[in-house]
TrEMBL record:
Residue intervals of the HTH luxR-type domain: 137-202
An example Gene Ontology molecular-function term: DNA binding
Heme listed as a keyword: no
Name assigned to this protein: LuxR family transcriptional regulator
């Protein structure tokens, strides 16, 4: 937990223990302390606020954004939950978020606490979930374009994609989930076939693939 309000840190820890009673929660108050802690141990989940107190008594997102940039560079697979009242500050990091290999989920502090728990679950599962307005600005990576070809042009299943790319089935599922998120495909009540068709239709519409 990287958060400069001790009571929020404590509350977040208590909620994570609802999700996983045996988890160990470490809270630090500054981005610098967060980076130092990461150098000692990579957590299963990193919970970050963007706003930190300034010398003048105000709040600034600059330290939080600078910390995220460093994390993206040095820890590309760590699972991250951004829990902040100013999620739109992430707009300037949209390219780095799109390339991050670990889970990345954003939850607004103004939402109910169960949104925090759901966000933690999704981040731990390696998923990508941010506000739709930000998601629309996100470009597909070269790897995701390759997966799109396997999915749409070659009609491969998640398991076949995993075999083709020499990754686990779960990793392949996360790849496809990220494609759905970036292409703004809404969940269709578990109807996986329909959602895959929707991915391909959206890709054709954006000229990402040729039918």
């Amino acid at each position: 937990m990287i958060e400069d309000h001790p009571e929020v840190n404590q509350n977040n820890c208590e909620f994570l223990q609802i999700l996983e009673p045996q988890c160990t929660c470490v809270g630090v108050n500054t981005p610098q302390q967060g980076i130092e802690q990461l150098e000692l141990e990579i957590p299963a989940l990193l919970v970050i606020d963007l706003q930190f107190g300034t010398v003048g008594g105000g709040q600034s997102a600059k330290p939080g954004l600078a910390m995220l940039k460093q994390i993206f560079e040095c820890y590309p697979t760590v699972n991250i939950l951004v829990y902040s009242s100013e999620p739109n500050c992430l707009r300037q990091l949209i390219a780095q978020i799109g390339n991050h290999q670990g889970g990345f989920v954003v939850v607004n502090k103004m939402e109910r606490r169960n949104a925090f728990l759901e966000g933690a679950r999704c981040a731990l599962a390696g998923q990508l979930k941010i506000h739709r307005d930000l998601m629309k600005e996100m470009q597909l990576t070269q790897q995701e374009l390759e997966i799109l070809d396997l999915l749409c042009n070659q009609a491969l299943s998640d398991r076949a994609i995993a075999q083709q790319m020499h990754v686990s089935h779960k990793t392949a599922q996360n790849y496809v989930q990220r494609l759905k998120a970036k292409l703004d495909i809404e969940p269709l009540d578990g109807q996986n076939t329909n959602s895959r068709v929707a991915v391909c239709m959206a890709a054709i519409d954006r000229k990402l693939i040729v039918c």
